[in-house]
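I had to read the description of the data format several times before I understood it. For illustration, here is how one protein appears when written out as sequence plus structure tokens:
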Amino acid sequence: MNLRRLEQLIALAEEGSFVRAAERTHLSQPALTRSIQHLEHDLGIRLFDRTRQGVVPTAAGQQLVDRARRVLFEVRGLRRDADLIRNHEMGEVRFGAGSYPSAILLPDVLATLMNTYPDLKVKAEVNDWATLLDKVTREELDFAVVERRAVPHDAPLETRLLAVEAAGWYVRGDHPLAGQRGLRTRDLRGYPLVSVPLPDAAHHHLRRKLGQTHGETLALSVECNDLLALREVATRTDAVLSATPSVCEQAVAEGRLTRLDIDDSHQKVEFAVAYLAHRTLSPAAQTAISLIERLVSP
């Protein structure tokens, strides 16, 4: 059994079609069919069934597909570690940032990396937390800076807590709610709410605070990954913005935004670095993470 055959096994399981799997593995369909047949013969078990929905793994086949994924993951890690040992250079770092980290940290991180390590190639992506975590899992990104509670408990990822910020609700300086004392979250009903995309747990928490019934769907008037754009929307409309002090600090100082005095809010945003578990980070990734940690430290 060779690694190439394991890649073909995984491709067929994921594509559900000999035609698509053959294209993906750069083989002819007959060649892929023969390869899978040889693998079944060597192992002495049937790996796939043909159904109306396509080619699907048998129960035994699925177990081997899962094991093959782990084997190839370790092989890629071995090769990568060897490259890091052999090449004593910074190379490239690929990382992602969610809405809050991109608004707060990204400009300083990118500028400092460029000034300090001019030979370092940086690829930074701003996206929603689910997409970023998926790309980290698929090894398309070295790490991502996200809200820690967005990381699923069963994900093959480790997290390193960076900072915790107390979030709140912000409105323009002459908003009808501005300056009122003893507000409750349910007092926000009737005003457009704007926010970055929220994890499921945050959705449930906000619905409860707004006094919505179990069947009601939380409707945000504007949901956008660009937190700086949302901040400007709040300065020009009756919108109520969910954000952290570091995002709104300048707008508050200028009088364009004010934080509402809401007794029962007590929201927190936990910034964390997420990266693959049991995987050695490259020197470039370690350098970038260390820089981010310094920037968020008090």
User: Anything to note?
Assistant: The mean pLDDT is 86. The CA atoms of residues 157 and 242 lie 28 Å apart.
